[in-house]
Amino acid sequence: MIRVEGLCKTFTSGWLRRRRVEAVKDVSFSIAKGETLGLVGESGCGKSTLSRLMVKLLPADQGRIYMEDQDITNYTMTQMLPLRRQMQIIFQHPDSALNPRQTMQQSLIEPLLLHRLMGKDEALHKAVELLELVGLGSDMLIRYPHQISGGQIQRVVIARALTLNPRFLVLDEPTSMLDVSVQAQVMEVLQQVQSQFEMAYLFISHDLELVAHVCQHMVIMHQGEIVEQACSKVVMEQPQHPYTRQLVQAFGDMR
Ligand SMILES: Nc1ncnc2c1ncn2[C@@H]1O[C@H](COP(=O)(O)OP(=O)(O)OP(=O)(O)O)[C@@H](O)[C@H]1O
Question: What is the ipTM of this complex?
Fold first, then answer.
């Protein structure tokens, strides 16, 4: 479904742009249809930069991005338009994900109207259908973000991402701001919609246990590089790289 080869991104800043941060260094992997790939690594290792490169919110310095075998690396904004709908990101902060001045109805139908995919009545119908899919009722439609819980907001955010029938979803710590029981419900919703629509997920998290539980494969990132990528079970049972061993050991100590 989506494949990256040799992706690199360096940020420069400061006096004469002399400060350089190699945020992503020569990263390659692929995610199949219906697969969830876990991306694990400490804060600042380059996870968000990598995901932004993949959906082309940031230009890569080097490397290639393929979406269903189409090389989209050098696509222009216009060429990206139809693909934008197919690649969505769900961020970790439910509170800032929705416009506080919009009701759930407005938030849900907006993408459909903006992309001129359907008229208002049909969009409203689709919004109710999607709310049902994520386990919420149509009573949500008239509420504003401050009138619903964090877990409910995250479900609306998922429903909103689904309005455009994406094929690839980046889940950037989607449950880290939620308490454990709500986290489990949101993960269940994500797994359910994935199996229904066969989407590919890139699941970004610090939580090795959660990643091992929900992802068939994982990649471990350290200082911009992928130091290990394998089946989650193999990573947990036979970590190869010293950094991965350290992570698995820390996870074992916490239990
Ligand atoms: N726009 C930017 N300009 C300069 N440096 C940046 C920029 N964006 C990210 N960086 C740097 O690139 C590195 C990787 O950042 P990134 O946000 O991708 O890490 P992360 O793994 O997602 O961290 P976290 O888990 O805390 O979100 C960091 O050193 C960060 O400071």
Answer: 0.96
